[in-house]
Amino acid sequence: xxxxxxxxxxxxxxxxxxxxxxxxxxxxxxxxxxxxxxxxxxxxxxxxxxxxxxxxxxxxxxxxxxxxxxxxxxxxxxxxxxxxxxxxxxxxxxxxxxxxxxxxxxxxxxxxxxxxxxxxxxxxxxxxxxxxxxxxxxxxxxxxxxxxxxxxxxxxxxxxxxxxxxxxxxxxxxxxxxxxxxxxxxxxxxxxxxxxxxxxxxxxxxxxxxxxxxxxxxxxxxxxxxxxxxxxxxxxxxxxxxxxxxxxxxxxxxxxxxxxxxxxxxxxxxxxxxxxxxxxxxxxxxxxxxxxxxxxxxxxxxxxxxxxxxxxxxxxxxxxxxxxxxxxxx
Length: 330
Description:
Radius of gyration: 21 Å
Number of domains: 3
CATH topology of the largest domain: Glutaredoxin
InterPro entries: Thioredoxin, Thioredoxin-like_sf, Thioredoxin_CS, Thioredoxin_domain, TPR-like_helical_dom_sf
Strand content: 5-15%
Family: Belongs to the thioredoxin family.
Pfam families: Thioredoxin, TPR_19, TPR_20
Protein name: Thioredoxin
Oligomer: single chain
GO biological process, one term: response to stress
């Protein structure tokens, strides 16, 4: 986005005047990322198994980021994503590696990590999951994802506008942020980031009807996008928490009986509704660690719902995933 096309500041907010404003991310190889070796397809792309996951992903990610592509032979979108993903990995010239896991043959790792739909790509660094996305996303988005892992700070035009909206929200200026998101959506009604950002503002403002109308307006092609699914999940969790009453009564029950898993479970829902994500996750993890079979694995199932609501890159999601992995693989 050129300087003459946009202006934003502390006083005047953000304006977008160029009639040809574009939101397409430019697709270029990740030249700024570390390139330990050019590599060949055999070096950079491989299939793995449950037994090989630790060596191929956990250990290898200590050398460079590893993308894990969870797929299945019957999955049409997987067949669309995989060749585009392979092309992007090869273009990155060793900045990342790609490991593919057939969840039909090897379902346990995907289940343990909370993968609920495919295709799903999870990035590992230094032995830990750090980022991810779901669905057959376009090549430009994959390139940007790989660049982000490699530390490339170049911003496309859409990213600049979204960054301005983020700054406005951080400053408490939700009105300006809303205007930016709406301007982006005027040019690109399918911008998932703008839809999600506007939805989050509506959610935080407790404008339930406005949020529901926004979700109804999402184009069908984007209705299953992870940020949109996260908004729906947050709305559902919030409505569920409203029926649980006061947290203090649940805290009293736990003080009297720390093994009251139902009280701890309900408290986690209320904590999440109040934005206390780490506390909510820790309570559900405590139930899971104490009794994995409680309520038909209900604590872990609820934790996966929270991951969906928070999004795969949220700090609380990443922290809770690491803790869950430690319990599962200990």
